[in-house]
Design brief:
It contains five helices and three strands; from the N terminus they run H-H-H-E-H-E-H-E. The protein is α/β, with parallel strands linked by helices.
Length: 133
């Protein structure tokens, strides 16, 4: 990808992230146990103001808030993000994709294996998002 294409993708991502509201669970600010869960749950009460879509209440999750397909699931740098958990996953990446891919090492990986993956990624010329140890 050229720098111009990456800049356009980054600008689109910033634009759509500003438009997108934060979807919180109903009453997340009232009860500590709901705030910790940080998951969206559809309101189901018959008098629930959020479910009714009244002004002044949190927005409902709707399909209209979805991002365009060409910028969906991309890293903020504009590259395609892949999750890696083994060296074998890293070696499977095609040579054509290496310039278009950024790798994230799985959080369950220990330090020793993580260092091996980072060193192998440097050899192959692949960027790593969480590559500090």
């Amino acid at each position: 990808m050229t720098n111009k294409e990456l800049k356009e993708i980054r600008d689109k991502k910033i634009k759509y992230n500003r438009i997108l509201p934060e979807f919180h669970r109903y009453n997340w600010d009232r009860y500590f146990k709901l705030e910790r869960q940080d998951k969206w749950r559809h309101p189901r009460g018959i008098d629930n103001k959020t479910r009714l879509g009244l002004r002044g209440y949190p927005k409902l999750v709707k399909i209209g808030y979805r991002k365009p397909k060409n910028i969906r699931n991309l890293h903020s740098s504009g590259l395609l993000q892949l999750r890696i958990s083994t060296l074998r996953d890293l070696e499977r990446i095609d040579n054509e994709l290496k310039s278009k891919v950024i790798v994230t090492i799985d959080g369950r990986i220990g330090l020793k294996k993580k260092m091996e993956i980072i060193n192998k990624a440097k050899e192959l010329g692949i960027e790593v998002t969480n590559g500090e140890y």
